[in-house]
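Hi all, posting the design record for the shared folder.

TITLE: backbone redesign
STEP: 1 of 1
STRUCTURE INPUT:
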């Protein structure tokens, strides 16, 4: 068996299923191997909340569709990730982890 590097290092825009307006979107990317080890280490020590936040900080490159109290668009900042709605973060985390895993076909190759 030969070892291969995954070529699915592509970004995608993800819309949170819980966002009824479908305006809020996240530009996400798959995690690297070292980032996956960081997340796995936190999960192994029952620090799930921190694992979710760290995965989102690693995996979210941009967002759009968030507005402040005055209705102005909020520009992306990684420091704001911890303040995003919980349900949206859980959905983004799940998608980031999904695109970071090898499929059965990829494992066989």
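Okay, here is what came back for every position:
SEQUENCE:
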């Amino acid at each position: 068996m030969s070892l291969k590097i995954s070529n699915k290092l592509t970004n995608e825009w993800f819309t949170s299923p819980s966002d009824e307006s479908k305006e809020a979107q996240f530009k996400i990317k798959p995690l690297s191997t070292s980032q996956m080890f960081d997340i796995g280490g936190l999960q192994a020590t029952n620090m799930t909340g921190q694992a979710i936040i760290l995965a989102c900080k690693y995996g979210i490159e941009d967002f759009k569709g968030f507005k402040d109290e005055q209705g102005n668009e909020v520009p992306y900042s990684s420091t704001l990730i911890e303040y995003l709605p919980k349900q949206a973060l859980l959905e983004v985390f799940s998608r980031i982890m999904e695109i970071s895993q090898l499929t059965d076909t990829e494992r066989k190759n």
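COMMENT: Residues 86-100 form the longest helix (15 residues).
Let me know if anyone wants the other runs.
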